[in-house]
Amino acid sequence: MPTRNLLILVLLTVTSLVAWVAHGHGQRSRRIGEVLAVIERSSLRPVASDELETAALEAIVARLDEHSAIVDGTARRELEATLDQQFGGVGLELMAAEGGIVVHAPIVGGPAWRAGIVAGERIVAIDGASTAGTSVRDAVALLRGDVGSAVSVAVLAPASGAGVEVGGGVDGLDVAAQPRVLRLVREIVRTESVLGDRRRPDGTWDWRLEGEPGVCLVRITGFGERTPAELDAALQAIAEMSDLRGLVIDLRGNPGGLLTAAVEVCDRFLDDGLIVATRRRSGGAVEAVDPRRATAGQMLAGVPIAVLIDGLTASAAEIVAACLQDHGRAVVVGSRSFGKGTVQSIIPLSDGRRLLKLTTAEYRRPADADEGQGDGPWGVTPDAGREIDVPAQARESLAGWRRLRDQPSPAADRPAAASAGDLPRRIDQVLATALAALPAPADLRGEKEAAGHADEPVGSGDAATTRDGGGR
Question: Which of 179, 161, 36 lies closest to 100 in space, CA to CA?
């Protein structure tokens, strides 16, 4: 057959195939449109066409899996704020409590923080409207808005001496007092995803774990756009500590986030090797694609690491825990992770209002990158002998204790931890188990005695050195 005729035949075949596929899609679209039209025309209870369209899209996506969804409105703004780590607002984290909306914490540096709002205060009105019966989500939506716009917030302080920790109610609020009304101007508020053990009075983090010489704590609450840069800053500060003997990375309660951020975090602790491999559909089959590998150069090389996880550690956080565990770079402590082994792509829809969050891939940890995942459970199990499950009441108590340490306050206002039995290892059972897996601290008394003879050489021959025992 002449080449020209062969090319024409191939072209006709491809054109026919495209037309057949388009015809199939067109038929389905027409059927969906037909049903919607009949409902609009004949349903006993009329429904707006936009509502019908949204319901149809949500029903289609719901047939896929529990993680795929149509995201719009407030949910879209929350998702984008979480991944971008910024939003337009006043910088308040809120919680529901008996009797109203209570400040969980002001974001350090934000408008609310600068205005003096503190954890435990109740938001009783927003722009003059009472918050009674208002959900936390609705209150957040009212406080967020265009940068430069203003919002008035009526705040009721805790009663004198009641403290700021809020448990199941608002018993500590001075309901007889008059709320103060603050006018706050919305601005870009940036959220942190990498936290330390406690805040200093100036709002910066103290990475040293209180009561544990040479041990630092890094808590990663999510994986957003700025997480790798935040971690770099923390690790650089930690690397300057001369007595460093261990690092604890706390991923408990971390719901995940950006896959790229998780890969970059892993890369900080590895010189080479597979971090994670993703598998996605290609030509009707699922096949391995896009292995993510570590690049040369790691931070804190040789420093022992413990990673803390629990049942709420999910997605990108599981990738980090699994990677460091498989490479023997960290011991994993806590309880089995959530088990979300899939990747969702965020796809903007043509209407400009909605996003399609679609499961497009599944991931493999380094130890089983060549194995099929199938429908079996996925998750990270702590190392042998390091599994510990904490009761719900103890978790709530720990969260309240952490909430206080996460807010900057003058050193004079903090209780004496050692005398009050308030050291982290005494409060946090999982952390205590992780500390037992790290090397024991050096004998500081022995170092001081040796320092008293610093002019005497140690060793022999050309290798003789002088011991420097100062500075610890």
Answer: 179
